[in-house]
Amino acid sequence: GDSVTQMEGPVTLSEEAFLTINCTYTATGYPSLFWYVQYPGEGLQLLLKATKADDKGSNKGFEATYRKETTSFHLEKGSVQVSDSAVYFCALSSGVDSNYQLIWGAGTKLIIKP
Amino acid sequence: NAGVTQTPKFQVLKTGQSMTLQCAQDMNHEYMSWYRQDPGMGLRLIHYSVGAGITDQGEVPNGYNVSRSTTEDFPLRLLSAAPSQTSVYFCASSYNRDSNQPQHFGDGTRLSIL
Questions:
Q1: What gap in Å lies between CA B45 and CA B73, rounded to an integer?
Q2: At B40, is the secondary structure helix, strand, or coil?
Q3: What is the pLDDT of residues B56-95, one digit of tens each?
Q4: pLDDT score, position A57
Q5: Residue numbers of B between 12 and 71 with CB closer than 8 Å to A
Q6: How far apart are CA B20 and CA B103, in angstroms?
Q7: Quick check: B92 and A105 CB within 8 A?
Q8: Closest Cβ–Cβ partner in A41, A51, A93 for B107
């Protein structure tokens, strides 16, 4: 079945460092890919998405490119801030093939130190 | 601008007790769902609903019941609590079941079963 694999955390960086959180997937067909973020004590919220190969999703300085050839959707940010500390979830949906349900990665906790 | 509201935020139960987790949304969303979040496992879908009067099982439905008598409300019932149900529970809603629609999450209910 479909699955999502994220790099294990926590990932600890200094402020202004470059961030990469790896996400790879296995899926039948052509899934849509998502990054959600969960700030402490809150629910998840959509950060960005991409619906087809080579699409780049971006929001709040974060970017991720849908790479079909490597089945990846890595999250990147050029200069992180303390306020980016959160748990980041990669997810996919194969649409009707997966009954429109989202398949979630385990989450990666990001800690940014000032 | 309430969005998705979950109550209670915290609850401690004894094994065998029953309780209902409440979820309400004010966005007139068709699609609502319940997830549980466990360490290292991401989110797992318990039950979902594509509209009032329609519910279906997700990945881990055993021990839980749901109903959807109105568009706004989607309560989750634990029939006889077990320690394995200790988790953080999230309710989510979206405009419809199309997974490209962003899901809006509540802040979660942290449930401990003793």
A1: 17
A2: coil
A3: 999 899 999 999 999 999 999 999 999 999 999 999 999 9
A4: 96
A5: 40-45, 48, 58-59
A6: 22
A7: no
A8: A41
